[in-house]
Amino acid sequence: MPGFSCVGQKGRACRGCRGYTPSCSLCFALVAPHTLKSAARGGRERCQAPHRPVTAGWAQQPCPGEDLAPPHHSRPSSWRGRAGRLPSLFAFRVFIVLLPRCSELLPLLSPSTPVPLSLSPPCFSLVGAMPYLLRDSKPRPPPLPREARATHSSGKAYKELKQDCLRRGSLFEDPDFPASDASLFFSEKPPVPFLWKRPGDIVKDPKFILGGATRTDICQGDLGDCWLLAAIASLTLNEKTLARVVPLDQNFGPDYAGIFHFQFWQHNEWLDVVIDDRLPTFKGRLVFLHSAEHNEFWSALLEKAYAKLNGSYEALKGGSTIEAMEDFTGGVGEMYEVKKAPDNFYEILEKALKRCSMVGCSIDTSSAAESEAKTPFGLIKGHAYSVTGIDEVSYRGQKVRLIRIRNPWGQVEWNGPWSDNSLEWRLVSPPEQKRLSQTALDDGEFWMKFEDFKVHFDKVEICNLTPDALEDSTAHKWEVTIHEGSWVRGSTAGGCRNFLDTFWTNPQIKMHLTETDDGQDDCTFIAALMQKDRRKLRKFGAEMLSIGYSIYESPGGDGHLNKDFFRYHASKARSKTYINLREVSNRFKLPPGDYILVPTTFEPHQEADFCLRIFSEKKAITEDLDENVAIDLPEPPNPTPSPQATEETEEEKQFRALFEQISGEDMEVSAEELEYVLNAVLKNSKC
After folding, report:
1. In whole angstroms, what is the distance from residue 250 CA to residue 275 CA?
2. Angle subtended at Cα 624 by Cα 623 and Cα 630, rounded to the nearest 5 degrees
3. Please, which residues bridge with residue 132 across strands?
4. Is 226 a catalytic residue?
């Protein structure tokens, strides 16, 4: 192939040299003959990573490959390029080159035998090694529909839809989230027949908000979404944030049209989700979230809008309070293990609430049988609570630190010291009780001593608000930068540091820390890695992946770091754990300088979209290095073409005819189609 060169401007190679995309298909064509021949001689090799990620609960394990284990690699789960389809030039040239050697390759190319392609050929002078690509012998689930990744509500805007309904004199019916079982569950049927009713069909005088939105408006129904309800309870503590999520320009008054809207933050943008007001009921009562006031419906409609955002009500089963808090605010979460919290933990919580941060807490369970089990002190295990206040009270001449907790059930409270009817309150003056909003009602909210809180609770989640969510000029505001990207099988899904051969192919973000904190020598920042849309994709079989990241000191330059760098350099910081939560975040303090942040899944070759956010005390400058893959390609030789070079052999003609038949007008084939073509040509080959 005379004259071939894939080196782009200023000596930078295209993404295809690392990702096998149409932009540089010839790279793989030159490599494949040597690669497959080596594979035929060497056979298969498969190494399993010696450690596993955290997949449930809060137990935390680091990715041990960083410092505790030698590098390992694992077999990828499929053979596929970045774009999912391979260009015709790629397909034709690779396998025309292979045909003369197919007698050596036939034993490896049977459908039942996975073929490892170790792409580090001597004919290339690459910076690092290419990723491992294999064809997995086990069946794969069908690809996720593209429309399932959408997060926006379809159709017209809220005001336009409402005006259409008022003009026609009809009530709005949402075609995107119909009043049917499909909006309720995706893996089961309702236990009893639910009847969808509008609020006016349930009560005579429905109200959107009655006497202000408060924590008592949130009572859990027959759905395991206490994590969401705890976040809603925290949301009611900040009127401005609440008004953004729950717009106040809607009611059941004269301009009622059966349509409502709510706003949620999703991956760097705010979405306006439009719904109708038909709600699932059984025997005339709401089945899911409801208010203590039976004619108040803002909380039930908010839950429905959030269910629509995530695909169904069932998609809301099980979750982390911080997930909903982030969707309500666009903030970033921090998680603390109470038993291991720093000495100034009380001050951390106090400052968080003063900054209008949303705070939740929970008690761990050791088994499924303990889920929602009640302790002797009236607390519920495996249940999400909201932290709604923190204060000090004078008691017998001393200051006692108290913390206020709310159970989203609207009942079942702490019965220990400083509970609603405890003796301690009798020694507190009435004005002090009034200041602390102390009541003896069984409303799900209670005070407890901070020391008792640390004994009985295990986890605390804090959602720090972004500048656009903080309208209070006195509140602390973070500097925020955001990067969005994807882990693509066979390209940028390199897995954690356990998998050295592919780890370097992960996306890399360069971070410049230039300004230290006020009065400090270091720079404080929070790195938050979020996987997108996994809850919405549940009905297609997708689950949360175990994710994390590592931070390295930059060696200088702007190029994508290669495998050798990670072989000989340890990270300066990293996420505490690889865990299957939507977001993993940690707070760091590092000296000023340049750093490289590498976001990864635990296992290689797992596909997902992600969003990486950097929250810093001072402004941090970041840039994506994913496009800058350094490569050193020698000029290929210019062989003298033989007289027969322009004539196709019989095998080449067979291949071309079959390829054109399958590829269609776009002259492109998928990995599966390419495999079929190869098997057919090799089967008929005379070599």
Report:
1. 12
2. 115
3. 118
4. yes
Q: Are 293 and 318 in contact (CB under 8 A)?
A: no
- What is the Cα–Cα distance from 335 to 584, expressed in whole angstroms? 9
Task: Name the DSSP letter for residue 662.
Answer: H
19 three-state secondary structure:
helix
Tell me the whole-structure pTM to 2 decimals: 0.63
Position 167 scores a pLDDT of 95
Q: Which one from 261, 290, 383, 605 is the annotated catalytic residue?
A: 383
Give residue-wise pLDDT tens across range 520-561.
888 888 899 999 999 989 888 889 999 999 999 999 887 899
Domain 46-74+477-636 and domain 333-464 have a common topology = no
**Cα of 487 vs its chain's centroid, Å:** 12
| Kind of pairing between the strands at 509-513 and 523-531 | unpaired
- Which residues have C-beta within 8 Å of that of residue 87, sequence separation ≥ 6? 22, 25, 667, 668
Record the tokens describing residue 373, joined without a space: 């089990």
The rounded distance, in Å, linking the Cα atoms of 92 and 645 is 15
Q: Which residues contact 276 (CB under 8 A, 6 or more apart)?
A: 171, 172, 173, 174, 177, 179, 198, 258, 259, 260
pLDDT of 20 strictly over 50: no
* Beta strand ranges found along 158-284 (DSSP E): 195-197, 259-265, 270-276, 279-282
3 state DSSP class of 374: strand
**Per-domain boundaries in the chain:** 1-43+76-113+640-687, 46-74+477-636, 156-188+195-316, 333-464
Q: For the chain, give the mean pLDDT.
A: 75
> For 364-422, what is each residue's pLDDT tens digit?
888 777 877 899 999 999 888 989 999 999 898 899 999 999 887 777 889 999 998 88
Active site residue 383: yes
Residue from 578, 300, 356, 353 nearest 473 by CA: 356
Going 566 to 568 to 571 to 572, the CA torsion angle's sign is negative
CATH code for the part of the protein at 46-74+477-636: 2.60.120.380
Q: Is 679 a catalytic residue?
A: no
pLDDT at 496 over 50: yes
Q: What is the largest CA-CA distance in the chain?
A: 105
Catalytic hit among 102, 219, 226, 463: 226
With contact defined as beta carbons under 8 Å apart, do 133 and 490 qualify?
yes
Model pLDDT, residue 179: 95
Give 568's contacts (C-beta < 8 A, 6+ positions apart): none
Tallying the residues shown for the chain, one arrives at 687
User: Which strands sit side by side in the sheet containing 509-513, from one edge to the other?
Assistant: 573-574, 547-553, 593-601, 509-513, 620-624
Q: Are 533 and 270 in contact (CB under 8 A)?
A: no
- Give me the residues paired with residue 259 across strands: 276
Q: In CATH, what number does 333-464 get?
A: 3.90.70.10
Instruction: Please state, in angstroms and rounded to a whole number, the distance separating the CA atoms of residues 524 and 422.
Output: 42
CA-CA distance, 151 to 149, in Å (whole number)? Answer: 6
Instruction: Exactly one of 407, 464, 580, 586 is catalytic; name it.
Output: 407
Helices (H), ranges, 139-216: 158-168, 199-202
| Residue in the block written with tokens 């809607």 | 250
Instruction: Give the model confidence (pLDDT) of 562-599 as tens digits.
Output: 999 999 999 999 998 899 989 999 889 899 999 999 99
Which residue matches tokens 């036939």?
106
CA pair distance 89, 26, nearest whole angstrom? 8
Amino acid identity at 291: S
Spatial separation of the C-alpha atoms in residues 229 and 299, rounded to whole Å = 9
pLDDT per residue as tens digits for the range 623-639: 787 554 433 445 545 54
**pLDDT of 99 higher than 80:** no
- Per the CB < 8 A criterion, the answer to whether 364 and 343 are in contact is no
Question: How many C-beta atoms lie closer than 10 Å to residue 321's C-beta?
Answer: 31
